[in-house]
Amino acid sequence: MHFQHPQLDLYLQKPTGQLYIRSIRIGNVEFGDLVIQDRAGALHLQDLVQATYDHSEKIRRLRRNGTRYPEPLPLATPARLLSEEVDDFLKDKERQNLRTTTIDAYQRTLAILQRVAGNTSASRIDHTHIYQMWDLLRWAPHDFMTNPAYSSLTPELLIAQGQSQGRPQPANSTLELHRRFLASFFNTLVKARAIPHSPMDAFKPARDELLIDQDEPERLLSIEEVQKIFNPDTFLPWAKKYPHRWWCPLIALYTGARINEIAQLKVADIVQDHGVWCFSVQKTVDEDLAQSSGRRSRQSIKGKSAMRKVPIHASLIQAGFMDFLADIKACGHPRLFPHLSASVSKKTGKVTGRYSQGFVNQFGSYLKGVGFAKGIGSHAFRHTLATELDAKGVRIEHIALITGHSLNKKAPVLQDNYVHKSANNVRKIQVEALEQYQPPVELPRYLRGQFRERLGKDARVYP
Fold first, then answer.
1. Do both 310 and 367 map to the same domain?
2. CB neighbours of 432 closer than 8 A, spacing ≥ 6?
């Protein structure tokens, strides 16, 4: 076959299974004796031809303006099929030891991109694909990626289908998460020199709307709400069923810790440091996974700043926490809350390490039963503690030593290496701050052996 194109001649022969190209000439550049064996190779050649033609046209225009020495021809992009680049990207995220839930979120975003662009070369993804993906996210039926009825529909038809159904718009935070995941993916390809630039460069974060949703519950708990949660008439009948129901809300109230940090605590994470009993938020090897070639701990940590020791509030000590610790040690289980199970991914079968999910579900049902609106959970304790300490004049960086928040440091070397270098100094700062936090609530008193049946030999517990 013979194709005509400005400054381009192609002569093709096509024996069975392969594509032979005898010659491609573009201006003064000639490619000869090419063999294309698969679709990826054809797309790669197409990118090369287009880049060469564009460069040839650029040189021609520059010469008209008097440029004597044109730039050398750029190398062809090595980008592969989108599916191949996505697979390698996700494997690299596993190598970075990202949480399974995070990797799954990346995978969902990139699957939507492939739904829009098809399995083309990654170098051929441009801003028009991103625009269409955004329309898909905004308008397509919410289950368009999982419902078999939508599997054969084009993006255009999916958008029309969702619009006809009056699909509610996703939250800005949801779209922003997709934007960040896409930016990370394409920036990785740019750094690997697989593509010359990211199509996400022009897509900046959306501005906060600063709208007040009167139906959205406040995350900050009032005195009356805290007392309502721990009302003995409702809390005790619910909490006495399992140790995590009894202690997780109390620990969250007096530490402001993230619920997964509490739910995954081990007996070995209760330590005495400079004479102060502390919860040590850390990630340690599980004995039964010690020899594993994969993940060796079911615990997970949000980031470096989250690794910390938090003093056990005097109110928790008075409520019998050390008696509970003695009961757990006596039963021999390595974790504080053995009735909580680490989640397992249905897709991969891998442990995700989210011990908190069972408690979140149970506590959510409890709060709903006592009259709280949807959206209030244990994270409200975190907001409450931080806000109360700030109102009492505790410095932000000192609150962060308790909550494990990261800070934008004005003098990071000074703060990292000198200000908080002494563990004794850190413990003193934390204790003094927590002494100012005294929620007006009467805590239930734990009695030794009250969970004897739940912690017995025949009890159902999880690693």
1. yes
2. none
Q: Are residues 179 and 298 in the same domain?
A: no
Between 387 and 345, name the one with better pLDDT. 387
Query: Do residues 455 and 333 touch, judged by C-beta distance below 8 A?
Result: yes
Residue 200 lies in a domain: no
User: CA angle 404-405-407, nearest 5°?
Assistant: 130
Residue range of the domain that includes 129: 82-191
Q: What is the mean pLDDT of the chain?
A: 84
- Pinpoint the alpha helices (H) of 370-445: 379-391, 396-403, 412-414, 423-435
Q: Strand, helix or coil at 278? A: strand
Do 272 and 345 sit in the same domain of this protein? yes
Instruction: Confirm if 454 and 243 have CB atoms less than 8 A apart.
Output: yes
Pair (301, 166) in one structural domain:
no
- Identify whether 21 is part of a domain: yes
pTM for this structure? 0.68
Q: Provide the CATH number for the domain around residue 313.
A: 1.10.443
Q: Which residue has the tokens 């013979």?
A: 2
For 125-150, how does the pLDDT look when each residue is reduced to its tens digit (9 = 90+)? Answer: 999 999 999 999 999 998 999 999 99
Question: Of the given ranges (13-22, 49-58, 174-183, 437-446), which has the lowest mean pLDDT?
Answer: 13-22
**Is the pLDDT confidence value at 230 over 60?**
yes
Residues 103 and 40 in one domain: no
Residue written as token pair 């898909």? 136
- Report residue 364 as tokens: 């959510």
Half-sphere exposure of 332 (CA within 13 A, CB side): 3
The predicted pLDDT at position 115 comes to: 94
- The 10 Å Cβ neighbour count of residue 47 is 19
- Is residue 345 within 8 A of residue 104, CB to CB? The reply is yes
Taking the CA atoms of 404, 410, 413 and 417 in sequence, report the sign of the dihedral they define: negative
Total structural domains within the chain: 3
Q: Report residue 333: phi and psi, to 5°.
A: -80, 140
DSSP 73-90: PPPPP---BHHHHHHHHH
Closest CA to 335 of 384, 286, 274: 286
90 & 138 share domain: yes
Cβ–Cβ under 8 Å, residues 312 and 323: no
Q: Is residue 394 part of a domain?
A: yes
On whether both 267 and 232 belong to a single domain, the answer is: yes
Domain contains 90: yes
